[in-house]
Amino acid sequence: MRSHNSTLISKTFHPSPPISRFRYRSSALCALLARVSLDSGTFNGLKSYAYLKQVGVGSGARRHGFLLRHKTFHVNAMDEGSFDVSSFHDWADTDGPVEYAFSSSEGEDSDSEMILQPITDVDLPTRKEHFHPTDDSVTLAAHRFATLGRAQKKRKSIYGILNNFGILAFLIAMFSLVDWCAWRIVRLPLPPFYLIRPFAISIAMVCFVGYICVPLLRSLKLLSIIRNGPARHSYKSGTPTMGGLYFIPIGIIVAEVIVGFSSIEVSGAAAVTLVFAAIGLVDDLLSLKNNNNGLSAKMRILLEIAATTCFLCWLYTADISSPYSMKMLVPMPAPLGLLCLGNFYPFLTAFCFVSMANGVNFTDGLDGLAGGTAALAFTGMSIAVLPICADLAVFGASMAGACVGFLFHNRYKASIFMGNTGALALGGALAAMAACTGMFFPLFISSGIFFLEVLSVIMQVSFFKTSKHWRGTGYRLFRMAPLHHHLELCGIKEPIIVAGAYVISAVLVFLAGYIGLISA
């Protein structure tokens, strides 16, 4: 593909015998290859910056059998998406040698064409060889740097595994502790492994089904389009999305099966969760169809309010477990006790549904961030609602397990995203647990990360509009909103941000569970 002021790369196959080293007519190409190899060994390492290199070589000098002429070789700005060239390792898989021809687009007076043939690990010089051309030494160094880059990528993936292991160990310890003390909390005998059982079953099922659904979503071309966030997130474009299509139903089904489809509270929470998942599904499908332009913010909020209104109508008429068999009560720790909100209860419920759904959606910007913090929030809510409605505690444990199972595929670096389908559903499920039991205060505590993300967006937009109105120029509080993108631009690595959010959420889970138990 040729474009103005860009380099032409043509790929041709020849049945000639392989050549054991690069052949080229300008030593500037050597510097180019070393720079490219330093960046993961691929030509895609040349990002959207200008790379201009001019090298003068002694005319007519013959070095190790190569004729190096006094020429100038320059490479102008190349865009990552302007051409598609596979890595050096893919070239070695072809049956015959592969030649790449580089030529300038300046016209007929430009530098002559240069031919290079990549090498494999077998073709690299060995210590037994007595003659090593200077350019092959540079090639060897570039190859070693490329191998080092791949090793660093493997080490980076370990960070996601460590984050998963940490959150899994913490949640197993929490549910085991609650199961051991459940009879003291509920003051009624509960089956053994009451919460750890739905949690473990959901993890196993979601993790297993993920190995089927991730390739399936990829084959269906349900791939994400990254247009917001830092520029470094551009590599995430093309990752399968809408993972909520499989892990949300699994969490709901496991909870319903364990409670025997007999709990009206679980059925109501499951229904509103699916409705919010449907809203997110419509948003995701429109985004894929209209090039990342899904539902408008106003339309999505209106749909969320409509779903909340239907849920409130059901809540008024259904015979659900509530504190002291009285609805519209909000349990608070002493000395506040039970607060009867009356007509303010529906407004608080609607606020929770909208804020939680959008809070999880805003948090879903880093690999594993939304799924892990949602799992911790469900854990805190399961502990808080256990004295009031034990069946809802099972629902929360099952959804927490579904989130952890999804993390096995969504950890850094993610192979799938939950999309709005999963994010809105998780927010709706958390709000439904609070609305059925009145445990809004524990919800605000356990979901502190979500509210912090929403608050950062509100502050950013409000400050920008206010400063633009009064000073004519808009100013920003953060480098980028939500908050996790600001931390990224400050130089903090993505897995470190996720691990810090997990630690903060774990502390909030302890606090939310304790307040919920002393309030019931």
- Biggest sheet architecture: 3 strands, antiparallel
How do the strands line up in the largest sheet? Answer: 1-4-5
Structural category: mainly alpha
Number of helices: 16
Distance between the termini: 69 Å
Q: Write down the Rg.
A: 29 Å
Tell me how many strands there are.
7
Sum up the overall morphology in one term: globular
Low-confidence stretches: 1-135, 147-154
- Helix and strand element order: EHEEHEEHHHHHHEEHHHHHHHH
Total tally of structural domains: 2
Transmembrane segments: 158-178, 198-220, 241-262, 268-288, 300-318, 330-354, 366-386, 416-435, 441-464, 496-517
InterPro entries: Glycosyl_transferase_4 (IPR000715), PNAcMuramoyl-5peptid_Trfase (IPR003524), PNAcMuramoyl-5peptid_Trfase_CS (IPR018480)
Protein name: Phospho-N-acetylmuramoyl-pentapeptide- transferase homolog isoform X1
Membrane topology: Multi-pass membrane protein
Which SSEs are present, and which pair or pack?
Blueprint: E1 8-13, H1 28-38, E2 61-63, E3 66-68, H2 88-91, E4 98-103, E5 114-116, H3 134-180, H4 182-186, H5 196-219, H6 244-259, H7 264-289, H8 297-317, E6 329-331, E7 338-340, H9 344-363, H10 369-385, H11 390-410, H12 419-437, H13 440-446, H14 448-471, H15 483-489, H16 494-519
Antiparallel strand pairs: 1-4, 2-3, 4-5, 6-7
Helix pairs in contact: 1-3, 3-10, 3-11, 3-16, 5-6, 5-11, 6-7, 6-11, 6-12, 7-8, 7-12, 8-9, 9-12, 9-14, 10-11, 10-12, 10-16, 13-16
Write up what this structure looks like.
By secondary structure, this protein is mainly α. The chain folds into 2 domains: 8-123, no CATH class; 155-440, no CATH class. Helices cover 57% and strands 5% of the residues. The chain contains 16 helices and 7 strands. It has helices at 28-38, 88-91, 134-180, 182-186, 196-219, 244-259, 264-289, 297-317, 344-363, 369-385, 390-410, 419-437, 440-446, 448-471, 483-489, 494-519; strands spanning 8-13, 61-63, 66-68, 98-103, 114-116, 329-331, 338-340. The strands form 3 sheets. The protein has a 3-stranded antiparallel sheet with strand order 1-4-5, with no helix packed on it. It has a two-stranded antiparallel ribbon with strand order 2-3. Strand 6 and strand 7 (338-340) form a beta hairpin. Helix 1 (28-38) packs parallel to helix 3, helix 3 (134-180) runs antiparallel to helix 11 and helix 10 packs antiparallel against helix 11. Residues 1-135 and 147-154 have low confidence and may be disordered. It comes from Coffea arabica. It is found in: Membrane. This is Phospho-N-acetylmuramoyl-pentapeptide- transferase homolog isoform X1. One of its GO terms (biological process) is cell wall macromolecule biosynthetic process. It is a multi-pass membrane protein.
